[in-house]
Design brief:
Order of helices and strands: HEEHHHHHHEEHHEHEEEHE
Radius of gyration: 31 Å
Number of strands: 9
Helix content: 55-70%
Largest sheet: 4 strands, antiparallel
Structural class: alpha+beta
């Protein structure tokens, strides 16, 4: 309902903008107008942004997408009527009351209708039309894309290898930063500082305290604790060292473009299997989104093949 109301509200405010409500497309002999197109464009990008940072190229891109969307909605509307879908009067009344509540007074609402050049009956027809489109989409796309718990469970069992929590390491980190433009002498001084810290760590001083005192990164306030990290989350040089270390072990100096690093491996977690309950909701969302896209693509292709669509842009 929310999108439908938003679209109908948009129509109330753009009618006065265009002197000539030109035809932008024809779908099975039904003309689609500029005001309708502008309504969809306003859903995608409110007109308040048009004259700010949005480039003409971006507006042209949005206009093309909006025209495709407008044509799609008309095809859905026509098919909904052909297959006998109906909207109850109570649903239209509910939509109309929702729109009216967006205005401060009846006078403001009537003035909006007047400026848009439409009557309340016209608005009712727009609401009915868009509710039909919504019902058609729900019936033909959303409902058909839904999967049961049994389907998800079967999918999970057949693809368990895809639901592994990857190996992870819990490390602490100290960075002695070196500016790339530093002289050899400055670089050597930084290296000596890092070597001295490493020596103190190896002699038993607390890693967290030394990280807080000397590290040149944002994690110093946490005692250098980077938390649990999977592969791909660290610099390659640090990752290579970390995943080879044993818990409690402190690395040698590791040099990168940022300077000298020292890491301590606190914990290493092997790959573990996610349970069905842990991934069920995420899996449902991924599968249903893919099914929804496939179903809608096929439906739209089928409707376009049977229709006569003429774009007049």
């Amino acid at each position: 309902m929310k999108k439908i109301i938003c679209f109908c509200l948009t129509l109330l405010f753009i009618g006065e903008v265009f002197g000539e409500d030109k035809i932008v497309a024809v779908v099975n002999d039904v003309p689609l107008k500029e005001t309708q197109l502008q309504g969809v464009m306003n859903e995608m990008l409110p007109r308040t942004f048009y004259h700010r940072t949005v480039t003409p190229e971006k507006i042209a891109e949005i206009r093309k997408k909006a025209l495709d969307e407008l044509i799609k909605r008309e095809l859905y509307y026509q098919e909904a009527k052909r297959t006998g879908l109906r909207v109850e009067r109570s649903e239209i009344n509910e939509g109309l009351e929702t729109i009216k509540k967006r205005f401060k007074s009846k006078k403001e609402y009537r003035e909006a209708l007047k400026q848009a050049g439409i009557s309340e009956d016209d608005l009712r027809k727009d609401i009915e039309r868009n509710l039909l489109i919504q019902k058609f989409y729900q019936k033909e796309v959303i409902d058909k894309s839904m999967v049961s718990d049994e389907y998800l469970k079967d999918y999970y069992e057949k693809n368990k290898k895809d639901f592994l929590r990857p190996e992870a390491v819990h490390i602490r980190h100290i960075l002695i930063k070196v500016d790339p433009s530093s002289s050899s002498e400055e670089k050597n001084k930084k290296k000596e500082t890092a070597q001295d810290i490493l020596k103190r760590l190896r002699s038993g001083e607390d890693f967290a305290e030394l990280a807080y005192k000397y590290s040149d990164d944002d994690w110093r306030v946490k005692g250098g604790d980077l938390g649990l990290l999977h592969r791909g989350r660290l610099l390659p040089e640090l990752e290579e060292a970390a995943f080879k270390m044993k818990p409690g072990e402190i690395s040698d100096l590791i040099e990168t473009i940022y300077g000298y690093h020292i890491i301590k491996l606190e914990e290493k977690l092997p790959p573990t299997q996610f349970s069905f309950e842990e991934i069920k909701d995420k899996l449902r969302k991924e599968i249903e989104e893919k099914r929804r896209k496939d179903i809608e693509d096929h439906l739209l292709k089928s409707l376009k093949e049977k229709a006569k669509v003429e774009v007049r842009e």
